[in-house]
Amino acid sequence: MNTSRRPLKFLFLFLLIIFLPILLLASKFRQRLLPHAALEKLEVTVDPLTATKNIGETLKLTVNVTTAKPLSGANLVFTFDRFQWNVVEVKGNTDKFSDDLSTSLIASGSGKILLSLVGRSAQTQLPRGPFRIGEITLQAAGAGTSSLAIDPATQIVGPADNGTHTLFEAYQLHDPQLTVLAGAGDPPKISFTTRINGITTQGPSLTARLRVLDPSSGSTRDFPVTLVSDTGGVYKPTGGWVTLTGVMARKPYTLLLKGPKHLQRRMETRKTLQVGDNTENIFNWTGTPLQPGDVPNPNLGNLQDGVANALDASLILERINSTDSSAASIADLNYDGVVNLNDFSLLISTLSTKNEDEQ
Sign of dihedral through CA atoms 19, 23, 28, 34? Predict the structure, then answer.
């Protein structure tokens, strides 16, 4: 028996144990790759490549593709700045495709546009070469410059060939640069109705403060608003509309209202305001009445401190049973001309809230 070959046999077995799993994995990996065809390049161009618009103006973009091989379906996804642009329409080219499932995906806050198209059944009718795949219409909403870029979620395929589908890799040589000019366009106007706790008949005209808060920056703008009442105690702005000068339309804002003896209430949260006196800018706030209790302090220049508390109670109690106009201007919460326990009870009902809404 030749014992000199034993080390060689052991070495062979050792190498087989080490490399056999690797060979098997490589074989499986190769089998996975076989059903898939190689990626084909597909150039996407958007016309125009640069555009400048004022707020409120629309922009139509034509999306073109160039490929030597036919397409059987496309989910072409673009990302855009949803704070600068609103999507008006997304339209696929049904002259080249049988079904157009295109849509805007901004409802979920994603800021994406989907051109989704299904090819015709006959391969001879499938589009190829340079052609228009769809159109996107945008409307300028907020100042700045942004791009329209292809999203990695894009999927474009060709017809089956020997059991495989052609996969396309979409690319852009240049991303469109889209600019919205600052300060351009008409500001929004709003109209609203509201109520005040304690007033159920026609009340006097009041000056309230409307605060417009931009959630994206935290900046605020205040507008004095003269409110007039109908016979049922429902208030609305004099003239019907409030022009929000300096506020850009088609952006989301939080709206807060504060009365001369009342806590500030948040009436709308992240509400997109349209240009001018649009019907979408009409609000019914009667279900969120202003709460009396934050009375002006005569010891601090008649300023309010944003809280209904014991200090306000003492200012009212000091003036109980007074019909003096100066006393009424501070402590007459139901505006009936006399400071009495009815006004104090309105404060007590507000004390459960205490602090006013801030944002």
Answer: positive
Predicted TM-score of the model (pTM):
0.53
pLDDT digits (tens, 9 = 90+) for 319-351: 999 999 999 999 999 999 999 999 999 999 998
Among 152, 174, 157, smallest CA distance to 79 is for: 152
The C-alpha atoms of residue 45 and residue 252 are separated, in whole angstroms, by: 31
Chain position carrying tokens 């125009």 = 48
Specify whether the CB–CB gap between 286 and 234 falls below 8 A: yes
- Helix, strand, or coil here: 325? helix
- Compute how many other C-beta atoms are within 10 angstroms of the C-beta atom of residue 346: 21
Distance of CA 119 to the CA centre of its chain: 33
Tokens found for residue 307: 């809280």
What is the Cα–Cα distance from 159 to 294, expressed in whole angstroms?
71
Output the CA–CA distances (angstroms, integers) from residue 106 to 117, 279, 314, in the order listed. Answer: 19, 22, 52
- The structural domains of the chain, ordered by start, are 39-180 (2.60.40.680), 189-350 (2.60.40)
The continuous run of DSSP H or E covering 229 comes out as strand 220-229
Decide: 143 and 55 in contact? Cβ < 8 Å: yes
pLDDT digits (tens, 9 = 90+) for 189-230: 999 999 999 999 999 999 999 999 998 888 899 999 999 999
DSSP line for 121-182: SSGGGS--SSEEEEEEEEEE-SSEEEE-EE-TT-EEEEEEETTEEEEEEEE-SS--EEEE-T
Determine how many CB atoms are found less than 10 A away from the CB of residue 49.
15
- Residues 83, 115 contacting (CB under 8 angstroms): no
How far is residue 328's CA from residue 320's CA, in Å, rounded to a whole number?
Answer: 10
